[in-house]
Each structure stands twice: as structure tokens, then as C-alpha cells.
Design a protein that fits this description.
This is Pimeloyl-ACP methyl ester carboxylesterase. The chain has a single domain, classed as Rossmann fold. Helix content is about 40%, strand content about 15%. It has 10 helices and 8 strands. α1 (about 55-65) runs parallel beside α10 (about 275-285).
Length: about 290
């Protein structure tokens, strides 16, 4: 028997967070949420070709212990409806529509790679929306060699196919002993969710996102001085997808930002060093 006064139980594991959806206009966004409700939520912005199943639970869960966390699929990705946008500015507009449809006027952001590109576009257009910002494995609009991501991606997809491995093992991690071990462990963690997994990302979606990233890399720089809220930037010291020097450039251009560069690691440095980074990110976002 139910009384109507039951409180929804707090989900403390991303591996079991239920799939949800919200319709905004003619489109439907797929998302998952966990952690205690109330206060300012942390919105997770995902990487290239990532659906909801691509977030590392060792990053998400420590943040969700004390914060309301929401991860979502961009339009045209996973279980969300519609088509992938041709520019990241449009993807940022979609994200804004999703966030406001959920009723939030202020958010914190955790972003990785392409998600960081989109998050920057969102904040430049809506500077008062974000209270605290985490930018990992990412770089600024117009950043040197961002437009070469497509070539790196296609080469590593081929290398991974020949090795019968997940492409992220090549794209995110160094190919030394430590990197290979970290890559295998990361892919294993992404498989911890065994039920109600997200829909696969299509090849067409990947191709459209890569073209949007190329445009982003070849665009005029954004004015990042409008980002005045506390910002944490992190990367590995050997990022082949979004060169590490661009994390350093972000740190110079965003006033008062903090920068962490992990040694002997690549694009997925925060996943390789999750035991160190997750508590740092959780503390930063809780401040």
C-alpha cells in the first residue's frame, strides 16, 4: 500500500541510475540522474560519440555522493530523438533548452572533451547560468590542431579494429604498459551497467560530430574572459586528441582557474588517475 508521501530513494550508483526522458518542443532528451536532490545540480557534458553508458562510474559516483548529478544524451545520440547538430553552438543551445526544461536556473558543469567545447559555448552565451565549471581533456574554440581530431579518431578506430579493442583504449590512453592497463580497466568499468543500457551511437552521428568539431577548431576564438566563475581544468600530459597545451591555454584565458596535468597519460588522464581526480573534482564542486 502506498500513501502518496513516499520519498524517492536516493540512487548512489551510476550503474543502476534509471533511464529517464523529457520532451522539449518536438524533441526528447534521454538522461540519467542520481545523488541527493535539491540545490544546484551538476550537469555532465559528454565526449565525442558518447552516450549515457560512456561515463566512468568512478568519476560520477564520488560526485553524486553529495550532489544531484545529471548526465544526458545530446540530440541524435543514444536514446535522445532528433539529429546531431552540425555545429557545437547549436548543441549548446539544445543543452540550454534541456537544462531550463528541467527547471534549473543555475548549474554546475562537469565536461570532458567535446563536452567541454559545448559547455564553453553554453557559458559564453549564458554566463550567469554556471556557478562552477570543470573542463577536462578539452580546449578553446579555434585552438590549434583541434580540427585534426577527425584524422586522429579514424586512425585509432582502425588501429583498435586490428587489435580487436575498443577505440577508446587508443584514443584516451598511452600505448605503454601503464596506459594499456588503464585503458582495459576503464572499458571494464563502462560495462558495469548490465541492464537498460543506452542505444548505440550511429556512424552518421559520429561523422556529424567530427565535422562540427572541425568547424569549432577552425573558428575565431571565443572571449573566455566572460567565464568568471571558479573553473577546474585537467588533462593528461600527452593528449593526442585535444593537445595538452590547449588545457594550459584555457587556464591562461580563464581568470583564476586551477590546472591539473597528470603525468604519463593521455586524453583520458582523469580516468587513468580517477582515484586522485574524483575526490578533487567532488571537493571543488562542493565548495
Amino acid at each position: 500500500m502506498t500513501t502518496g508521501n513516499e520519498v524517492e530513494p536516493v540512487i548512489d550508483s551510476y550503474a543502476v541510475a534509471p533511464n529517464k526522458s523529457i520532451t522539449v518542443g518536438k524533441e526528447t532528451f534521454a538522461y540519467r540522474e542520481l545523488g541527493p536532490r535539491g540545490g544546484i545540480p551538476v550537469i555532465f557534458f559528454a565526449h565525442l560519440a558518447a552516450n549515457l553508458d560512456n561515463w566512468d562510474p568512478r568519476i560520477v559516483d564520488p560526485i553524486a555522493r553529495n550532489r544531484h548529478v545529471i548526465a544526458f544524451d545530446q540530440l541524435g545520440v543514444g536514446a535522445s530523438s532528433g539529429r546531431v547538430r552540425k555545429t557545437l553552438e547549436e548543441a549548446a543551445d539544445d543543452a540550454y533548452e534541456f537544462i531550463t526544461a528541467l527547471g534549473f536556473e543555475t548549474i554546475d558543469v562537469f565536461s570532458f572533451s567535446m563536452g567541454g567545447f559545448i559547455a564553453q559555448d553554453l557559458i559564453v552565451k549564458h554566463p550567469d547560468l554556471v556557478r562552477r565549471l570543470v573542463l577536462t581533456g578539452t580546449g578553446p574554440r579555434g585552438g590549434k590542431d583541434i580540427d585534426k581530431v577527425a584524422g586522429v579518431t579514424y586512425r585509432d578506430i582502425l588501429r583498435a579494429a586490428l587489435a580487436r579493442s575498443d577505440p577508446k583504449e587508443f584514443l584516451f590512453f598511452n600505448r605503454d604498459t601503464a596506459g594499456k592497463r588503464a585503458g582495459k580497466a576503464f572499458i571494464g568499468r563502462l560495462k558495469e551497467r548490465t541492464a537498460n543500457r543506452d542505444a548505440a551511437v550511429s556512424t552518421k552521428a559520429l561523422q556529424t560530430q567530427l565535422k562540427a568539431i572541425q568547424k569549432y577548431g577552425r573558428s575565431a576564438p571565443s572571449d573566455l574572459s566572460v567565464i568568471t566563475r571558479p573553473t577546474l581544468i585537467a588533462n593528461g600530459d600527452n593528449d593526442r586528441m585535444v593537445p595538452t597545451v590547449l588545457s594550459e591555454e584555457l587556464s591562461r584565458r580563464i581568470p583564476g582557474s586551477e590546472l591539473i596535468i597528470y603525468p604519463n597519460s593521455g586524453h583520458g588522464g582523469i580516468f587513468q588517475f580517477h582515484q586522485d581526480f574524483a575526490p578533487i573534482a567532488a571537493k571543488f564542486l562542493a565548495a
